[in-house]
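ingest -> fold -> write
write: protein_1
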Amino acid sequence: MNIMEIVTKIATDSKIVGAIASSVLIILFGYFLRKKEVFKDSTSKIVSEVVLSAALPALAYNSFMKDIDGNALKQAMNLLIWGFIMYVLLIIITKVLYVKFKGDKKEVLRVLTIFGSTTFFGIPITQAVYGATGVMYASILNISYRAFLYSYGYVKMSGLKMDKENIKKIIFNPIVLATLFGMIIWVVQKSLPQVTITEGGKTASYAFLRIDKTAVWLHTPLTYLAKLCSPLAWLAIGCKLAKISLKEAVSSKECWYYTLTKVILVPALNIVALYLLTVTGILQFSHMALATVVIAMATPTATVAAAFSISFDKEALTTSNCSFLSTIFSIVLMPIWIVVLEVIKQLGMFA
């Protein structure tokens, strides 16, 4: 099968096309609603809070409500390890990438490059294309993201030492807690007290904390909350885009440099790194694990990183412009990255 045949096959895959179209069209709808003032200035923030405090934790937790699988467990642990290695490498690499910049601008651009919107932008896309397993992998990858964002990111942006408040944000973040709790249940489920369930005339035993089987009354509302994640996140992104000037963003050379680095170079470097680790047997990654990392790295500026910049008055205008331009490019390039990932899959580069 040649490249054109692979691309044609992808273009006719209703699931992939539907996921891409849904994200783009709902983002544009959010943009339209804000321009028409159906959504107000505060709407994006309110919707974002609902996503971050309720929908995403429910989505992360529910993704672990499945039988334990040896290969999936291996991939999860490899992603956890790679997450911490990756952020250390990005800290080093961005020193080289932004060597021509000086002072606050250099540090701000480095932080914005290291930390993308993996939670708010990446996970909804991953869910739409790769389902619950993709969300599970993305949630595990985000453990290292949160740890570095609220430590290294905070220190660099504030110029202060790590404080207790940010340690609390790392430990007690609802998404992190839901991920850790769900992951623990998933890993140790065979060792937990079992409950016998009869489904379709067949009897099976499940851990009592597997609420998808033992407490459907609790799992169902969490499922409804989880389903809100993608559409609400995309509406909020569209609403946010409507508030920023395109003219200012596109006229900045440094924003173009940052955007191309963030949404093209960083994901590409991850593909190379994961391929080398896989073929050498140091850490082996499946195609879905690779896809999870690439989508996470191809996301635009992280909301929290941008908030740090504005709060500590460090290149706030540059940050706003970078956030806008990188979001536009991420929306445009994400479908291309998904096609690239499918081509890689068809070529058999990852298992």
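write: protein_2
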Amino acid sequence: MVSTFVPEPHLLDSPRGREWPRLPAPPSPTRAASPAPGADVVIVGAGPAGLAVASALWHHGVTDVAVVDRTGRPCGRFFDRIDRLGQRVLRSPYEHHPGVEGFRDCELLDFARLHWDRLTPTERREIRMSQAGHRSVVPVDVFDAYCAHLVATHHVGEKTWQAAVREVEPEPGAVTVRTERFSVAARHVVLCLGEERRPAPESWWGGGRPPSGVSYWDEPVPRGGGRQIVVGAGLTAAHLIGNALAAGREVHWVIREPGERFQCADVNSAFFRPEGRARFDRVGWGERLRLMGQFRRASIMFEFRPMLERAEAEGRLVVHRGETVTRVSGGARVHLAGGRVLGGDLAVLALGTTPSIGTGLLPPELVGERDGWPSLDERTLAYEREPRVSVVGAAAGMALGPAARNIDGHRVATARVAAAIAAQLRHGTVAPQRVVARV
């Protein structure tokens, strides 16, 4: 007989909004309205990837850095999205964090242990699980406080500026980052753009904004009861369903696959280890595409399984498995391939995300887009056609493998990028262009 371990769902109920000790902010001169017109490095995006890069550069002695972010708050958009979903724990374990490798620094597990008295018994058990080498999950509250700790100890906040980047333009001697308010000329630029929501197919309603009663997962969900339709098979959909059930709604869940996929991590854990990345390195472009398609598929944390199964058994959740959406119309009406039409008070689309690879900021010929991915030098994660610009985050997927989109993938990418930039700045050189041919 084979037994299956299903983690208990109370891990999903970690408190949010606790007060955490904060390091005193160092005295600083009056802040200017915009950064200096020139910098050694400009980081575009202040999410976990941007925070990791800024922290790593600080350890390398690179301090002339400007971070440009649409919110102006390190990890602001990241936590805004999490809180909109009501998410209380991260899927990533304690060993996945935006801290710095190879330097004396406080890691996420150490930070949590330092604040042991603020943790619930369930959260403390997760720490013990992590110390024993078993799967663990991290409370959003702990991760939020840890990111604030990194911001303070690596002086990232004082280097972060709010602006929307319009263009990244390579010029002789510099790469200029242009925003709606200011421009900064940098010796090197790192794009930490994250991922954007995947839009619905144009055939569903003709493109543009969704019809009335239909919204995307990262938009506010109106309060109230009634029936809610959720389209999508991933962790975001699970959070939307949990919120709707808690609000007393009847939920209809549309899944294109034959059934739900429950797994611990968002990608196979082998790709977080050096041997997993080496497996990815050894194959050509076609096999990499296949692996990315296989291991970047939507899945849900095991902790949701008891709640979803109970709701379905009680009739509060109706799951439409193996159903393809053909059209979405006003009034929250979702048309399925078999001819059935689901009607509700609200339809929310959780169709996943797509990596932002620099298209729209850099000239297309420099991005070198191929099958949705940029052409990168795999040693430095710089663009092959513009080595003064690098990427960290999901856009490095075809260089690092499926784990590139995960927080631990950000740390691995950061180690390469920060070391390459620091060496370039020390020696006053730019890494030579190298075109990698793949079959």
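write: annotation protein_2
The mean pLDDT is 91.
The first strand starts at residue 38 and ends at 44.
pipeline exit 0
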